[in-house]
Amino acid sequence: MSYISAARRTMYFIGVTTGKSSIMKVFPAWSRHLGLDAEMKGIDFAPNSDPAAYRAAVEFIKADPLSLGALVTTHKVNLLKASRALFDELDPYAMTLHEISSISKRGDRLVGHAKDPITAGASFEAIVPDGYWARTGASLCILGSGGSSLALTLYLHNKVKSGGDVPSTIVVTARREASLAEMRHVHEEIGFAIPIEYRLAPGPAEADRIVGDLPDASMVVNATGLGKDGPGSPLSDAVSFPKDGLVWEFNYRGDLVFLDQAKAAAEARGLTVHDGWVYFIHGWTRVIAEVFDINIPMSGPAFDDLSRIARDVSQ
What class is the 118-275 domain? Predict the structure, then answer.
């Protein structure tokens, strides 16, 4: 892939099929609203691309004056592995997770951040009422043990250290034992602060049983990617969600079967159901704030305005 020097301030979106993302419509509207005078360009790579390709993209961004940074999806681990020597600074989460989701510049320094624990945490707090876990004693069940799931657990681990309200226990499922082992390794390294179970669930039947055993008021999260990155749901239609529980689908677009299952059971089980829209907004605004070195509030009227603008242009 050849790169052409940016003619105006530019932020990049490094992904797989970036042209299909809503952000390509949303960013121009946000740029006008925030006074960024900037554009966004996509850089697409197939998953697990040649390390030289990742390195070339980072080298270009670092060297090009008007290329200010990037948001990275899918390639977070491989891109950092291929281009680690090009970064002058990594934040603590990037060091722990060995991945980056944000590339930015400060003078002649190239900086990498892993923003997912922050964005997952902000979205989690927007969904869960104050004092919920202390009041209910409920558990958190995260279906899937990939990067977004690990990010949420790291946020909660740090929240414990600051005396915050957290679930009594966490249950994480995965279809492969190796995936659970990777998460367990990170948790052991940091001395994970919340009681946690790592449960193998190779199919919907096993996941149904795990969800069905949760205490009332527990929260169930779909962090598997099913419904967006692949078809279907980690659960079957026969699943029994926890009575009076919270249900969170990480995704906001796609054939969201898990979300449909939760909505179908909402009245009978007393569920409060959320999709991934707020997560989408936080994910992008945190990186935009970093790339353009501006303050974007994480709640309140200014944040609500950005969410409204995004919905208006996405419809």
Answer: alpha beta
Domain regions of the chain by residue span: 10-114+278-314, 118-275
Query: What class, spelled out in words, does domain 10-114+278-314 have in CATH?
Result: alpha beta
The helix (H) or strand (E) run that includes residue 273 is strand 272-274
Task: Tell me the H-state helices in the chain.
Answer: 23-34, 51-63, 76-83, 92-97, 116-127, 132-136, 147-161, 177-190, 204-212, 257-269, 277-292, 301-314
Structure pTM?
0.91
Instruction: Please classify residue 300 by burial: count the beta carbons closer than 10 Å to its beta carbon, then call 0-12 exposed, 13-18 middle and 19+ buried.
Output: exposed
Distance CA 125, CA 119 (A): 10
- Interval 59-110: pLDDT, tens: 999 999 999 999 999 899 999 999 999 999 999 999 999 999 999 999 999 9
In sequence order, which residues have a C-beta less than 8 Å from that of residue 72 and are 6 or more positions away?
A: 14, 15, 79, 100, 101, 102, 103
Hey, how many other C-beta atoms are within 10 angstroms of the C-beta on 215? 14
Burial of 275 (0-12, 13-18, 19+ CB in 10 A): buried
**Hey, which residues does 199 pair with through a beta bridge?**
173
Query: Residue 20 gets which letter from DSSP?
Result: G
**Cα→Cα distances 141→193, 274, 309, 310, Å:** 16, 15, 32, 30
Same CATH topology for 10-114+278-314 and 118-275? yes
**Contact yes or no for 19/9 (Cβ under 8 A):** no
The values of phi and psi at residue 197, to 5°, are: -115, 135
